[in-house]
Amino acid sequence: MPIVLDCEVISDEIAEDGSQRNTKRRCTLAVDAPYIFKKLIGVEVVYFLQNNFLDWANRTLNIEAVNESFSSRIEIFERCRYYAHPDNPDWTCFDQTATLDIKNFFGFEHSMEKMGMKQYTQTTLKGKEIIEYFINELKAEGITEVDRWKPPVDAAASSISRQSSKDMEQENGIADVHGVKRGSKPEILLDGDFIAKHLGQLTPMQESKLLELRKMLEDCEEDMSKLPSYQTILRFLRARDWHVSQALSVLKDSLKWRKDNSIDNLLDDYKMPAVVTEHFPGGWHHYDKDGRPIYILRLGHMDVKGLLKSIGTEGLLKLSLHICEEGIQKIKQSSESLGTPVLDWSLLVDLDGLSMRHLWRPGVKALLSIIECVESNYPETMGRVLVVQAPRVFPIAWTIVSAFINDNTRSKFIFYGVADANTMKEGLEQYIDSELIPDFLGGTCKTLVHEGGLIPKTLYKMNSLEEDEQAEQAQQNKSMNEHGRATNNGLNSDHHGLYKTVELKIGYIHEVVIRNTDVKSVLTWDFDVIRGDLHFTLYRVTKDLPRQQDAAVSFFDLNDFSEGVNYFKEETTLICHHKESVQGSHVMNYKNNYVLHWFSPSCGIEGPTQLNYFYEILSSANYKGSMTSLQSGFSSNSATSSCQSR
Fold first, then answer.
1. 265-459: which CATH architecture?
2. What sequence ranges are listed for the domain PRELI/MSF1 (predicted)?
3. Which of 102-111, 505-514, 551-560 is the least confident region?
4. Which of 147, 184, 241, 610 gets the most CB atoms within 10 Å of its CB?
């Protein structure tokens, strides 16, 4: 398996009669986690201890594994079992179980649990492929059966007896292919007219599972009026791939959450803060062609830092929940109006103006918290997500966030990048009537959505946000030090710690050298021209670069540098003016030096040109986005530009 880098045998013991073998290993695994977590924990590999117990006499193989890395924060236990079928000894049975208990993981416990279960499922499927691969390898060698082990004549009887089939059924909870325990009786079907009008097309098995879950909820709830609607039950079933027991568990948790947080009264009780009314760039906008209510979010125009400092993480979560509750209400109204099932709503996300500053750590943390809460309590309410005007920085943001979005929800995203501007309106018309396409996307329809922009600091209330983040980071570093691990926290608590500021006199240059050793890694940059004008170019150099001695002399002014011979212009020179913001990304296809090059052609009356910049390298292993979606772009530093979250 690709994630397994190495296995070291710690001990290997074989019984005297050869009937049993116990092998212990220490395995090194690559960290298959989102980019943000790798930066957070500061490690690329983790260690697991594995114990394999082979019992030839009873024809069983038991494999157990526990994590050694981060064992004080996470407990991972996995058991795999191979054994002869109790009714047919020529068949081999296999079962696999695992537990995951995250005690403390830098504030991302629930997200890590969800990610862990998702990746465990993927690994299970990969395990099946590997088993089939080796079986086919044996067949290719002409091996189709192996003689059963026979004990030596003078060997003592084995002390380990095989479990009975009854014990195995009790331990494993034998179920049919639909996940229902044997012996359960099929339920009656729902009324066909009700299904057609309110739920859409369902198979008989899906109808049966819907009734089964409804009956389970009735057994748990004395007050029948508090039971969720069939539409809600259906959403939770679909979100759990029609596994009734799983859907019951998460639905009961969600109902308790709603009760504990008075969510049923949110629409009546919630008072929208003035800062949201005046500066939040989101709102409802008519319906799509399938009758879904449309919510527009101009994310690139959102002042993430300003919102968090004005209403806090809890306030932003409550706003998001209020939007979800409005969505449920509008879905119901649309279904009743049309007389056909409408079970979800559409989200139109405008990313014009998105920059690296939107990845400010508290903002990312708040976003992940909101995604986790919404995914848990409003599953399958998002029918379609139209992402428009995706800039060059978007693949990085998507790489970080998409890991926390349910696979089914993720499949509903449709993207239109900056390069798709000419065909975007035509693409949107597949889903939204032409007369309803917003004017800022080339349509004619006016919207009530605020354009966003910078939130005045006079509205800030969360002045301790950075201090809280720094205190949390210090505690994490202390904890990591106590366990002898590196203290690379990966993300600064404030984007001002990520950006560097330089001043350039007329004719001076500023160059940053990136020595690339990872082919297909992605170099990203984000910078502001605070004062004056600048020329920006990205170069690739095939020879060693000397130490820079003079800020007025570029590497490429030296005698032994010749363009097209030992250095190449990878990105066309951009002329960047006063107050402009530039974001970009470039796939580094060579193991060469790359140079970010800024040149100051002039100085204004205010003094030297001032540059505020940030760059980062996303490794080829971490980057999962579409390389073709990387497009250059720069915009003016206005209230609706990419700089509004500063």
1. 3-Layer(aba) Sandwich (3.40)
2. 1-143
3. 102-111
4. 610
